[in-house]
Specification:
heterodimer; A: 171 residues; Alpha-Beta Plaits; four-stranded mixed β-sheet; two-stranded antiparallel ribbon; 5 helices; B: alpha+beta; 6 strands; 29% helix; 30% strand
Chain lengths: 171, 108
């Protein structure tokens, strides 16, 4: 059993039963990064009941918020992007919104890891700052979770080719 | 809290309001370190204004000569916007192009 934590002060649990404290785990690193999310929903405890937000929800919001920034060409590590491209070949297929997103969701906090491909000629610093602001704002605004950190890895840089500018990019 | 893109838009408006500024420009990459002069935000970007940590860059095209007074006025206008939000970052004005009609509008 691996017990690793990325977020500061976040708790990760793979069990729906959050009352069992103690062994918090992030679980199978690579497989989870590929699928984009952790598995268990979390509870927002209130006096009159609890709210559960699944990690998929946070991952989807984060993915859409990141793609909103011009300069973000696509998301996901090399293998995930290739799978996404294959999915796009099928009618009605599109890249998953959670592609390139992996989240740790606790009871009140979330930590988000992103894999991006940026556009050539744009400042990576500017883009990642804008992504961080957008993701933090949208996740906090829509879920009520506090985003403790947004870790961004730029995996590749996209150079526009003449073909790309002629045909509109499907994203 | 003041959003970066709002400040960038205000700077863009201030620069466009200076006589002699024909438009904003993403800048020549040779001058701007290979980086487009723009401020990305969710859903779009402000082209011609870059809010970097070490300073604000404004890219313009100019329709009159001489150029230095235009650049100085743009820098002053941008500094006014920045000081209004309590920002004292240095301002760099990059002139990307001079329009042909500039030569007909030469002022003494």
């Amino acid at each position: 059993m691996t017990s690793s934590s990325v977020g500061q002060g976040t708790t990760q649990s793979n069990r729906a039963d959050t009352s069992r404290s103690g062994e918090q785990q992030r679980g199978g690193g690579i497989a989870q990064k590929m699928s984009g999310t952790t598995s268990a929903p979390v509870a927002l405890e209130t006096g009159q009941g609890s709210t559960r937000i699944a990690p998929e929800v946070v991952a989807k919001i984060a993915g859409l918020a990141a793609r909103d920034i011009p300069g973000v060409h696509s998301m996901g590590s090399g293998v995930a992007r290739r799978i996404g491209q294959i999915r796009e070949l099928f009618p009605g297929g599109s890249q998953a919104a959670t592609q390139g997103v992996s989240v740790d969701v606790g009871e009140r906090q979330a930590a988000i890891d992103l894999n991006l491909v940026t556009e050539y000629g744009q400042s990576i610093v500017d883009i990642t700052e804008a992504v961080r602001r957008s993701v933090t704002g949208q996740v906090e605004g829509m879920t009520g979770l506090k985003v403790t950190e947004v870790n961004i890895q730029v995996d590749d840089i996209h150079v526009e080719s003449p073909q790309d500018s002629q045909q509109s990019r499907a994203q | 809290m003041v959003r970066v893109e709002d400040v960038a838009s205000a700077i863009a408006d201030a620069a466009l309001g200076v006589p002699g500024v024909a438009g904003l420009s993403p800048g020549p990459r040779s001058v701007t370190g290979g980086v487009e002069v723009s401020t990305p935000y969710p859903g779009g970007k402000v082209v011609g204004v870059r809010m970097a940590a070490d300073g604000v860059t404004v890219g313009i095209t100019v329709d009159r000569v001489p150029l230095p007074p235009v650049a100085d006025q743009v820098a002053a206008a941008v500094r006014r916007v920045l000081s209004a939000v309590g920002d004292d970052r240095p301002v760099t004005v990059v002139i990307d192009d001079v329009l042909p009609e500039a030569l007909n509008r030469r002022v003494a």
